[in-house]
Amino acid sequence: MTTMITTITRLALGLCLILHQSAALATHVLTGSAGYICKETIHHILESRPSDLVVGLCRSNRVQSEAEYWRKFSEDRVSIQDINEANYPDKFTLYLIASNFSPGSEKAKAIENVESVLSAISSVSPRSCQGVVLLSSMAAVRGPGQAPGPAGVFTSEDWNSVSELREGDFAQSYQYSKTAQEKAFASACDAAGLSRCSICPSLVLGPLRSPTQYGTSLRMIQSWYTGEKVCESRLLVDVRDVATALIKAGDEVRRGGARSRYIVSNARRRSGSEIVSVLNSLGGRG
């Protein structure tokens, strides 16, 4: 009898351990795995969540190079897949980080960015997807010249209400696109019964994990560095802080019922002269 009780006790303790490990383990599926912010986020997951797994989604022509890159950091925790042939795991959190917006054909790209989010949400099931996190932008919170509300500051309750979609006007069209994308994201998630969270960073700066990385923020900084464009005052945020915010947003949506939106940014705008001073100290001509 004593032996039976001991055996049952061991089985119960073993079952509790298995359940605990299962609860601690999360699988993160991220779009745009070849990009600046997504790559930083995956590194953060590997470094801070030793039990978690990652599925990185990118374009077919980047799958091999990305797989080779991540093998240097983990043999078995990162899987790279073609974004158009994604094989979702049984339980996962989806992070929509990829975004393609560059000068030229602004209207088509704005529509594509909205449709890509809607397509991603429609491709997952609430039974397996534990929640969705969108990398949005401060551009979706406020537009150029837009005044803040009665509190005198912009909050996560605010939306860009002034930017317009204009062919040939990259800045306006980008801001309009991010706003339309985030609103479509919220509506689609709610309709599908998916827990959701949006992260709205300001201009993202910080160290590069790979010399081949490039993006909207980096192109802008390069234009300031070379003196091609005048450096204006900006709200800034470190890419490492954005990665941390995305991971915490993933934790929040996995708990269920989230309908969240967060601004991630330095609270004070940095003047153009401050930024130029730093760039010039690095050899820039801003």
From the N-terminal CA to the C-terminal CA, the straight-line distance is 82 Å
Helix content: 40-55%
Largest beta sheet: what is the strand line-up? Answer: 3-2-1-4-5-6-9
How do the helices and strands follow one another from N- to C-terminus? HEHEHEEHEHEEHEHEH
CA radius of gyration is 21 Å
Low-confidence stretches: 1-24
* SS-derived structural category: alpha/beta
Mean pLDDT: 86
Q: What overall form do the CA principal axes indicate?
A: globular
Helix count, per DSSP?
A: 8
Beta-strand segment tally: 9
Work out the strand percent: 15-25%
Main sheet attributes: strand count, strand direction, barrel closure = 7 strands, parallel
Describe the fold and architecture:
This protein has 8 helices and 9 strands. The chain is globular and about 50 Å long. Helix 3 links the parallel strand 2 (53-58) and strand 3. A 7-stranded parallel β-sheet has the order 3-2-1-4-5-6-9, with helices on both faces. It has 286 residues and is an alpha/beta fold. The termini are far apart.
Provide a brief overview of the structure.
This protein is α/β, with parallel strands linked by helices.
Q: Helices and strands in order, then pairings?
A:
Blueprint lengths: L1 H23 L2 E5 L4 H13 L4 E6 L4 H9 L6 E5 L9 E5 L9 H17 L6 E7 L34 H23 L3 E6 L1 E3 L10 H11 L9 E3 H16 L4 E6 L7 H10 L5
Parallel strand pairs: 1-2, 1-4, 2-3, 4-5, 5-6, 6-9, 7-8
Helix pairs in contact: 2-7, 4-5
Keywords:
single chain; 286 residues; alpha/beta; 7-stranded parallel sheet; two-stranded parallel ribbon; 8 helices; 9 strands; 43% helix; 16% strand; disordered N terminus
